[in-house]
Design a protein that fits this description.
Oxidized Rhodanese, domain 1; 5-stranded parallel sheet; 2 domains; elongated; 196 residues; 3-stranded antiparallel sheet; alpha/beta; single chain
Length: 196
């Protein structure tokens, strides 16, 4: 069953979210990979990677009675998927943080930085697709035209990702060991420095 994203309650900008957080604690979920979270995250965000998010279990354990759940990722795509999971679980009071962590950082708002050196997931996707496409094209010119199938496959994958909002390569890369290891525990990152 595909629940449309439109069922989510609203959107909030990073600046609005910061103002709301000054009025009291918020239920703020960061659905990026542990390595991305460790590299930089919004203060007070709870790391719950999208691929491990069990919305019914989360709602049962945290029961946000009368409170919205604010969801963010790097730029918004994974947060939308998380909001869909909550909607399927019967909870429609989720708020998308527009532009995600990147918009928060771009707005000059404080972030907690850790020691992770892992590239953001979308950069990993871009590097992988670029490498496979360039290699395939070079092999097609130098060795055999059938190697042109590699850029064709990567191009079709990009088209599929753009049309559906689902990137299979990103889902695969998120499961790789370097994206699973956070470099520091989610609680120990709180001791890392805060940058403006």
């Amino acid at each position: 069953m595909n629940v449309p994203f439109a069922q989510s309650k609203t959107f909030v900008t990073p600046a609005e979210l910061q103002r709301l957080a000054q009025d009291g604690p918020l239920e703020l979920l960061d659905v990026r990979t542990p390595a991305e979270f460790a590299a930089a995250h919004v203060p007070g965000a709870l790391p719950v990677p999208l691929d491990t998010l069990d919305a019914p279990a989360f709602l049962k354990s945290r029961a946000p009675q009368g409170k919205s759940i604010y969801v963010l990722c790097q730029t918004g795509g994974r947060a939308r998927k998380a909001i869909e999971k909550f909607a399927r679980a019967g909870f429609a009071d989720c708020v998308l943080v527009e532009g995600g962590t990147q918009a928060w950082i771009d707005a000059g708002l404080p972030v907690i930085r850790g020691a992770s050196r892992t590239l953001p997931l979308m950069r990993q996707v871009q590097i992988t697709i670029g490498l496979v496409s360039a290699t395939g094209a070079a092999l097609a010119v130098a060795i055999h035209p059938l190697f042109a199938i590699l850029p064709l496959i990567t191009g079709a994958g990009l088209l599929f990702a753009g049309l559906t909002g689902t990137c299979g390569l990103a889902l695969l890369l998120a499961k790789m060991p370097w994206n699973r290891a956070a470099g520091c525990g989610s609680n120990s990152c709180c001791a890392a420095k805060t940058d403006l």
